[in-house]
Amino acid sequence: MKKVVLALATIVLSATIISCKNESKEVTSEVNPEQDITQIPSEDIALADVNTETTAAGEYLYVLASSGLSLREFGNLQSDKLAKMPYGTKVKVINAEDKATMTVGGIKGGMDEVEFNHKQGFAFNGYLSKYFPPELNITAKGYASELNQYFPDVMYSEENGGTASSPESTQSILLPQAEWHDAFFIAQGLFDFPKEFDFPNPKGKDEQTVADSKPKKDVWTSELEIKRKDNTLEKISYVYKSKKLDNLVVIEKTDKGMKISKTEKIK
Fold it and tell me: Which of 67, 103, 119, 126 has the most beta carbons within 10 angstroms of its beta carbon?
């Protein structure tokens, strides 16, 4: 009889210990809602971008982060990683977080519960977007045409000018209801400016220039120019100059949505 009682006591004690460990894991995995990405290891960040407006359950979003986006066990950035979702991955939203509960790399957002490759977990929706990212080497016109199949309000325009010896052309895409980070990551992929440039934090100096840390050979200028007002982004420009070509990519907000334009001048 004593042996039976001792065995039962051991089982109860083991279950209590396991339960305490699980509760402790969920509590300690919470993160500071205002923790910036610079305080989080780079391996915790992946690819993507999400609109700040509410995303309905059952909708699909796309990973915009070029390095991939982590799928996590719980709704915080310190919980275990279940998988890494590559750039361009289409994920299904199970439950959307409609409030900004954290700030990562200057992007406000929350942890959406999503499904990826038959796994359910959580992902930071600041790197998820309703707009799928551009494929490699696709033209701006071609990308706009693909978007139009799902988003009829997306607009594309082009202008040509300059001289016969120095022609100039401008291509523009208007993305309704997009956010600054949506437009930045899409412009970065579409117009191929260096992935070394991180999304600019809305908070900072009114004017800031960030030089390319790894410029290509024979490139005179490769830099990101940021304009802010009252800690709000007003314009992001990528300036590229070489002996034969000048490029200017501009991202700005209009009353109809985010506008991305690229002006190319051949010397």
Answer: 126
Task: Specify whether 125 is located in the same domain as 144.
Answer: no
Q: How many domains does the chain have?
A: 2
What Å distances lie between residue 187 and 21, 110, 115, 140, CA to CA? 45, 23, 27, 10
Per residue in 202-258, pLDDT (tens digit) is 999 999 999 998 888 888 999 999 999 999 999 999 999 999 999 999 999 999 999
Q: Are residues 173 and 258 in the same domain?
A: yes
**Claim to verify: residue 106 and residue 145 sit in the same structural domain:** no
At which residue do the structure tokens 């919470």 appear?
30
Which pTM was predicted? 0.76
Residues 6 or more apart in contact with residue 39 via CB below 8 angstroms: none
